[in-house]
């Protein structure tokens, strides 16, 4: 029976749940602590240029692919999506050589096999895995299905060990993991995460002209059209429990929002302290969540270029090495982003106060990234008009992520049952959603939003109808 729903956090996960359930007749209120909705989808302006925070490209948006029907439902398909070069959506620069990854399972397979004919079998095996995980995409909606059991088995396998056993040539392994930055690839990464994310980009890859904020703005407008509300500058600080259920959400602004159900779409380690006064949430659960490891943060350079100085690059470039880089070119403005993984420990000394040493460290690090990027783009240094940087401290401040973690909680193949946080919680009307459950990224967060809403309503079939009807 639809009733009052409060959602904490207006990132992609919170907004998609809000949209789904507002259309289903629920009275939706989304509360966002920041001045702008969007979380990682936020954009910001510098040097008259709009830069993205945490969205560079998405996979699987082509017709008949995983995201297409869902983005149609969310009314996001007519945004200015730009396909990346199908003959090479990713370029991996490794060992002094460049390798292109083309779209389409067969083209991807043929192209890689032409460069690595001795690895034909391994390449085919990997492609079959991409196909298989694409078929398993909706298995989270059916936890008792064979597909879901097989998904969970893939969560219990190490991506890097599997690659090592399947692909014998170290150069090809380096190509296949060269874009691991987008996955947050580490020794902990489960094979499912690797295959699901990589496979979706093999199908097709898209940039959004104008930036990710448009996704958030569309979802906010959709929620409001259905009578829901999205309130910004409202920071949730606590939840009230009565007779084993959450009955209200309290805010730093000393307001109280009554709720029949709550979806927490923020980092779960931010949620746990808010449950302190909820007797049904035992200390052991809170402790377990608080002990979970986070993925690493990112150091990002947002570079305004002199107009006409550097041609637009319709692919994403990854440079492997001790300081791996991702280079993203903006389709509609002379600008580039360069991203590199960066641990919280590098920055935490400045968590309370930024000083000159912080600025100097950022500058040195930025110069090093530009030096590495210039291996592939020799004209870059001369083309730069202005460089802006963001560190894990910036992400922690603007998206509320813990330790500036880019992709939230680390999923670990060693113990999938404990590192895959369930969307259900010990309270029957409190649910989790977002990148910390299952998978990060636009596709992963969207799938989890479906799962959360499916479980919350307890009604069967309506999500499948959405998927099939589009
Ligand atoms: C640098 C970077 C690059 C990325 N690039 C890509 C990419 O190219 N493609 C892709 O698919 N994915 C990418 N991602 C991942 C993707 O952006 C995320 O997985 C996704 O947007 C996360 O959505 P979310 O709703 O789970 O969390 P978030 O976007 O983090 O949203 C959480 C929201 O909760 C709010 N909140 C926190 N505390 C409170 C509180 N107390 N009260 C109220 N609100 C609160 C926050 O302010 C925030 O708005 C990238 C991420 C990063 C960081």
Structure report:
The protein is an alpha/beta fold. It has three domains: 4-41 and 211-292 and 421-469, FAD/NAD(P)-binding domain (3-Layer(bba) Sandwich); 103-203, no CATH class; 296-403, no CATH class. The protein has helices at residues 12-23, 68-73, 105-115, 120-135, 146-155, 159-166, 170-177, 191-203, 213-225, 268-271, 283-291, 356-373, 380-383, 392-399, 416-419, 441-457, 462-469; strands spanning 4-8, 27-31, 43-46, 49-52, 58-59, 81-83, 90-94, 97-101, 205-208, 229-231, 236-242, 245-251, 256-258, 261-264, 297-305, 316-319, 325-329, 335-342, 384-390, 430-432. It has a seven-stranded mixed β-sheet with strand order 8-7-16-17-18-15-19, with helices on both faces. The protein has a five-stranded parallel β-sheet with strand order 10-2-1-14-20, with helices on one face. The radius of gyration is 22 Å and the shape is globular. The mean pLDDT is 96. Residues 8-14, 31-34, 39-41, 54-58, 235-236, 265-266, 270, 298, 300, 339, 395, 399-401, 406, 434-435, 440-442, 445 line the site of flavin-adenine dinucleotide. Residues 8-14, 31-34, 39-41, 54-58, 235-236, 265-266, 270, 298, 300, 339, 395, 399-401, 406, 434-435, 440-442, 445 line the site of flavin-adenine dinucleotide (FAD).
Strand order of the largest sheet: 8-7-16-17-18-15-19
Within the CATH hierarchy, at the fold level, what is the topology of the largest domain? FAD/NAD(P)-binding domain
Q: Label the overall shape.
A: globular
User: What share of the residues does DSSP label as strand, in percent?
Assistant: 15-25%
Number of helices: 17
Radius of gyration: 22 Å
| Overall number of strands | 20
Within CATH, the superfamily of the largest domain carries the name FAD/NAD(P)-binding domain
